[in-house]
């Protein structure tokens, strides 16, 4: 209420209509959409080949992408290009749908943030993919180093996904954001490496560490070289 001689308050302004919500895939960088499509397509073809086909594609993918150490490397060979091809192609080979979907979830969640500083042009996409596969290669290398005398086959996008985890922290919160996201995860993985001989879990902890460390250290350099130019 207003008393005599007092101006009445102005009428409330019309509320602004809420901005239309954009479809979730519109917010994802093209590089992430392309990478996700490749991971899904490779696993779908692998599953179909192993379950309903003649198994030829499955065997070819295992030969191309499975990172072998120890006795498995002796039996199957190290893979094309002296083992160099599996060191990078293992991101497209997964041991079941749950394995693939878990890794894909991390790629989508953290990769979207990590890819944005690279922009949407071809140069930026190339830089993002180089970073992604650098994390994968580092993860495969550390796995092979730690398990050279053990019989293993490692596969999955988790090596590179761990690099995207750290990169997402860099992209959203700088060094502090990266450390907040990555240091607890790194500590957990180091603990798991130490106790895994008693647990014997089918998880490539050392591969995860290699990818994570690469993301923690190398992401700013990749963005500096391939990221969007400002000014």
From TrEMBL:
Compartments reported by the entry: Membrane
Transmembrane regions: 91-113, 125-146, 152-171, 178-199, 205-226
Coiled-coil stretches noted in the UniProt entry, renumbered to this chain: none
GO process terms (BP): proteolysis
Protein name, entry field: Rhomboid family intramembrane serine protease
Location of region: Disordered: 1-23
GO function terms (MF aspect): serine-type endopeptidase activity
UniProt keyword annotation of Coiled coil present: no
Species lineage: Bacteria, Pseudomonadati, Pseudomonadota, Alphaproteobacteria, Maricaulales
Membrane topology (UniProt): Multi-pass membrane protein
Keywords: Cell inner membrane, Cell membrane, Hydrolase, Membrane, Protease, Transmembrane, Transmembrane helix
Organism superkingdom: Bacteria
Biased composition (Pro residues): 7-21
CC per GO annotation: membrane
Peptidase S54 rhomboid domain sequence ranges: 87-219
Pfam families: Rhomboid
């Amino acid at each position: 209420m207003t008393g005599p001689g007092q101006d009445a308050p102005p009428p409330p302004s019309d509320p602004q209509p809420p901005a239309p919500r954009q479809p979730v895939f519109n917010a994802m960088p093209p590089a992430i959409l392309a990478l996700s499509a490749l991971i899904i397509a490779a696993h779908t073809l692998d599953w179909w080949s192993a379950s309903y086909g003649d198994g030829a594609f499955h065997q070819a993918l295992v030969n191309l992408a499975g990172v072998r150490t120890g006795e498995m490397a002796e039996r199957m060979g190290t893979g094309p290009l002296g083992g160099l091809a599996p060191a990078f192609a293992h991101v497209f080979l997964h041991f079941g749908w749950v394995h693939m979907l878990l890794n894909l979830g991390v790629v989508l969640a953290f990769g979207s943030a990590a890819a944005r500083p690279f922009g949407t042009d071809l140069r930026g996409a190339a830089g993002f993919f180089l970073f992604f596969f650098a994390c994968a290669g580092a993860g495969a290398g550390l796995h092979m180093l730690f398990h050279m005398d053990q019989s293993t086959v490692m596969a999955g996008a988790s090596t590179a996904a761990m690099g995207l985890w750290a990169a997402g922290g860099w992209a959203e919160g700088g060094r502090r954001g990266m450390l907040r996201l990555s240091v607890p995860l790194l500590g957990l993985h180091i603990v798991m490496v130490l106790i895994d001989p008693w647990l014997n879990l089918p998880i490539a902890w050392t591969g995860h560490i290699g990818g994570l460390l690469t993301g923690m250290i190398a992401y700013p350099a990749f963005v500096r070289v391939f990221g969007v130019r400002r000014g």
